[in-house]
Amino acid sequence: MAKSGRNRAVKVAIGAAAIGVATSVGAVAVTQPASISASLVDLAALIVVGSSTNPSGEGVENFFGGKFRDPMYTGPNGTDIVRVNFWDGPAGIKAALDANAGEQNAVIASGWGAANASLLLLRQDPAYADTVFILDNDVARPDGGFGTRYPWFVLIGVNPIPTPSQVPAAAAVNIGYQYDYNSNAPAYVLNPFAAVNSLAAYLNTRLNQSQIDLPVNADGTPSVTCNANTCAITESGAVLPCPDARCSSPGDRITAYVTTRNNTTYVTYTTDELPLTTLIRTYLGDYIADVVNPLLELVVNFGYYGGNPIPSDPSAYRPGAIIPSPADILTTIAKIPQALERTVAAALGPLQPRKLPSANRIEPTTDPASETEQKPTIREQLERAAEDAGLSDYLEPKKPKPVNKPLLNVVRDSLKVKPGDRKDGTGGADPGETDDGQPADLPQTDPGDTDTGTGTGDGAESGGSTDTNNDNGGAAAA
Predict the structure, then answer these.
(1) Which residue from 444, 427, 436 is spatially nearest to 468, judged by alpha carbons?
(2) What does DSSP assign to residue 307?
(3) Does residue 99 lie within any of the structural domains?
(4) Contact assessment for residue 109 and residue 88, using Cβ atoms and an 8 Å cutoff
(5) What confidence tens digit (pLDDT) does each residue in 259-272 have?
(6) How do strand 264-269 and strand 171-177 relate by DSSP bridges?
(7) Pairwise pLDDT comparison (471 vs 332), residue with the higher score
(8) Is residue 375 domain-resident?
(9) Number of domains in the chain
(10) In angstroms, rounded to a whole number, what is the distance separating the alpha carbons of residues 133 and 113?
């Protein structure tokens, strides 16, 4: 019941708009008959239309890097440009087109001026067969223009009739901007956050179009193709198939969606951040903006059908509503946990302890000798240098390092020689030699001395030396 009432209200608004448009055209014909009947000699085929905030249309020809200042429209010198004042309305645009009938024309308009131009496309006039219409930030965009979202704006002269996708022209390009009040107004009128955000988006977009790269050729055809009804363009310039503009690109942000319906190419640009968040970031700083953004984004998107401001079919007419549908309410509720998680992460992020870089960490070593092995001694450095120079033979041989090891018990297989024992078993040393095999005429070793010959030779102490040099040696005689 409510839906049928809303449809009747829309029909009444459209009827009132048609009457208003007819009245405005008639008024222009009465007050400015030259604009309708006189031949507009020397008017250019590139027709630039003014808007409510820029009535003269100055600078509109430079939109999208001046793509449509092409010689096919402006002539070889690029000077054949005509401006239609916003206050001349649709009649002024029609007069300029009639003066250049049969030529290859282009009409470029923005905002409310684009909605005025779209009124001409409601008639299947063959006179526009060679004309390309470029409708930037069209307030009569079927899904998002504030003129079509809110038909009551017809009371101030805004066109409430959606711009058709099948136009009586060579081609049409309809350009929208995410969240912008002109072409992407909120669907639910009782969401103040979405409304304020749309106004912020409008202020960010206004008069910045000259810096935007439009993925469309000068003849109005799209310059990108893919295997889907919508193509997504990323920041790096990659083109992705994106059915119904419902895809994602985590590693490379999507900057625009391109959709073709009949002979109209729809281009919808995205924002890298919520415009309201950008405003908060400018005046309150990064921390507050990062903390409030997740929930703010959730609330703002709650103001659009399906919780998504990007239309799946930009050619479909969808007027506004008072309150969200139950399905949209459930969709938003399901997104709350993720938004809260992002909020907590943003709030606690700067408070997390910073980790020292690895260069400042001191790692314990398990091998005390590792540092010595890693850093060679001076002698080792000299040896390496000498070896490289071929002088290693002249270096003094390196003495072995003492090894502090405990003495081991050595088990001998030979008989233990006792002081006074002789080789023949009768005791005493052999007459010809000492027990260490030295000639008898050398100074004899005292039995108490060690096998190194360091005894005093004065007595017959016990614990004498062993014979390690000759089996024929014995203990020295007293």
Answers:
(1) 436
(2) G
(3) yes
(4) no
(5) 999 999 999 999 99
(6) parallel
(7) 332
(8) no
(9) 1
(10) 12
